[in-house]
Amino acid sequence: MIIRGDEPEQIALLKKLYPKGNYFMQGDEAIAYGAIFAGCRFYAGYPITPASEIAETMARELPKVRGYYIQMEDEIGSIAAIIGASWTGLKSMTATSGPGFSLMMENLGYAIMTETPIVVVDVQRSGPSTGQATKGAQGDFFQARWGTHGDHPIVAISPISVEDSFWETIRAFNISEKLRIPVVLLTDGVIGHAREQIRIPDPEEVEIVYRKLPKNEEEAKYPFGDVDGSLVPPMPLFGHGYFTHVTGSTHKETGLRDVYTPEVHIKLVNRLHKKVEKHEKEIEKWEEHFTDDMEILVISWGVSARPSFGAVLRAREEGIKVGLFIPKTVHPFPGRRVKELARKVRAILVPEMNLGQLILEVQRYVNDDVILKGVNKIGGVPLTVEEILREIRGVWDG
Amino acid sequence: MAEKTKYKMARYLRKEALPTALCPGCGGGTVLNAFANAIDQLKLDPRDLVVVSGIGCSAWIASPYFLADTLHTTHGRAIAFATGVKVGLPDKKVVVISGDGDLAGIGGNHLIHAARRNIDITVILVNNFIYGMTGGQVAPTTPFGARTTTTPYRNIEHPLNIAEVIAEAGASYVARWTTAHVYQLIESMKKALQVKGFSLVEAISQCPVQFGRRNKMKEPAEMLRWFLKNSIPISKAKNMSREELEGKFVIGEFVNRQRPEFTEELNKLIEELTGQSGPGDENAD
């Protein structure tokens, strides 16, 4: 049975099972509940630290809302299964961490090329390779962007807290469904395993989106054509007698393969990019604090955004004019806004749990006369307020 | 189509995708023909069919040529994709048609686990002993001693006995035939499509261009004669030793049994937990 998540029976079920109110839970669990509220009714996964709690929560909760959980034989099979399920109309998700995310890269590209809405959660852990398996990190910033081969657009979202994990998962599904694209939720082992209070809303407070379906047989003939000017084709799901053909090879608007005509490839790949660019306003999201009156700007993301906020608050108490910018959608990167903000400051600090990744993206939007400095930490222990504050004071006094 | 075709199965084909890309003499056409006949004889509506394939020549047999919902996936992963499709559409027939390198080489683990899970997917595994599309490299099914572009002297590895492995892994139905046994192939495809649970039909098929040419069988007919000469019915093979069976093709039904099926179990579990029929049930197929 194909459930979209917004059926009155489903709303009633969610209200009964998860009454609105305050809960105490892990970031990973919040992702699972966010997915369920977003209408996700198919999950395929493979155990991996620190993402396993998402699978465990889905295995326990999905059947209660008439959803399907399956543990696959590996991460490649997991992402493959969710793509297959998505073509039947089920909102689908998988979750993993670095090593599994690496294995998923080929099929992430397949989902991009076939315009299949799915959500892939990467609970980042310390790498490379097996690294510090149980420790959080932010080393997959560019893997999320460029991990799969070839020219491609990607949307990646990064929550900063447990409650944020709930809401950003819903946003990931909505963008994925609206644009018929895979969305990566780039969280980390620190937030994933942290326990905090979160407010579970009434399901009616949650706006959820379901993919556009063909209005008639004629529209269904073009599963990869821009039939209505939105650049997002309606999705002719399997099982409806449309004889839909889906391939990861370069294909025409009908779906049939044509790998020899340059124009077919150029048109397809350009449209895939343009559909993301065209809807950029709906995709982009960030937080700003104290950016009206600042000389120093801190730009941080995910787990590092919180000690950054603490450090900025403390610095403000000390009279330091510092602002904070937190991209929640990290890809596509909100470069235009960063460029505007960068013009107002003399220094930019970029705290992150890696040896410098977001900073490379920031660099593209900052003039040479602005001091740009990373605040980097690896080893599995998150940055502290004190560590970031020290750097803020350093550039303020310097 | 203005031009009338005498081929009765043409109505099951995606005409705009024809002619096929298969080489002259390829066994793929025989498999496609057998599959279309199986569908026709069972009077299955192609609207109730989803065909999934991977990468390689044999993945092309039904995709895009068969007129159904067709999902042409990444190398080795067709069965994993099909798993998601089957869970979403438990009332449809989900069929994977792909090759030996794709399903038993790079994708071998998915094949084993789908059989273990006994999910109601029919796999038609076209075994031509070779990686054809990439130029005739050795496969996990290439006979011992055979020549390929990457075993230019002789193959020093032993082939995987796919049907035997999958029967052991827990499939409801497993059969093996060759393209020289078309009627038996059709009958087994029909059984596979009807059985509840995981089913595998291994179709040994000729690749005269990439395999036969390098192994003294450049004519398709020579390969078919090779199949016939070396085929041993499974009833007879049971009394033969491994050594005696070296280089032979054991044909017939390996297993045909009832076991709990995955999507049924999954839905049963959901019913147990929800304790009621859910939204939309009254509109279900």
UniProtKB/TrEMBL annotation, chain A:
Claim: Oxidoreductase is one of the keywords in the record: yes
Reactions that this protein is recorded to catalyse: 2 oxidized [2Fe-2S]-[ferredoxin] + 2-oxoglutarate + CoA = succinyl-CoA + 2 reduced [2Fe-2S]-[ferredoxin] + CO2 + H(+)
InterPro entries linked: PFOR_II, Pyruvate:ferred/Flavod_OxRd, Pyrv_Fd/Flavodoxin_OxRdtase_N, THDP-binding, Transketo_C/PFOR_II
Domain (Pyruvate flavodoxin/ferredoxin oxidoreductase pyrimidine binding) ranges: 34-270
EC identifiers of the protein: 1.2.7.3
GO biological process, one term: organic acid metabolic process
Gene3D superfamilies in the record: 3.40.50.920, 3.40.50.970
A Pfam family of this chain: PFOR_II
Enzyme class name: oxidoreductase
GO molecular function, one term: 2-oxoglutarate synthase activity
Record has Oxidoreductase as a keyword: yes
Keywords: Oxidoreductase
Domain Pyruvate:ferredoxin oxidoreductase core: 295-388
Alphabetized PANTHER family for the sequence: 2-OXOGLUTARATE SYNTHASE SUBUNIT KORA, PYRUVATE-FLAVODOXIN OXIDOREDUCTASE-RELATED
Oligomer and partners: Heterotetramer of the KorA, KorB, KorC and KorD subunits.
Protein name, entry field: 2-oxoglutarate synthase subunit KorA
Species annotation: Thermococcus paralvinellae
UniProtKB/TrEMBL annotation, chain B:
Sequence ranges assigned to domain Thiamine pyrophosphate enzyme TPP-binding in this UniProt record: 55-202
UniProt keywords, alphabetically: Oxidoreductase
GO biological process: one example: sulfur compound biosynthetic process
InterPro entries reported for this sequence: 2-oxoacid:Fd_oxidoreductase (IPR051457), THDP-binding (IPR029061), TPP_enzyme_TPP-bd (IPR011766)
Entry-linked Gene3D superfamilies: 3.40.50.970
Pfam families with a match to the protein in the record: TPP_enzyme_C (PF02775)
GO molecular-function terms, A-Z: oxidoreductase activity, acting on the aldehyde or oxo group of donors, iron-sulfur protein as acceptor; thiamine pyrophosphate binding
Domain of life: Archaea
PANTHER family assigned to the protein according to its UniProt record, in alphabetical order: 2-OXOGLUTARATE OXIDOREDUCTASE SUBUNIT KORB-RELATED, 2-OXOGLUTARATE SYNTHASE SUBUNIT KORB
Official protein name in the record: 2-oxoacid:ferredoxin oxidoreductase subunit beta
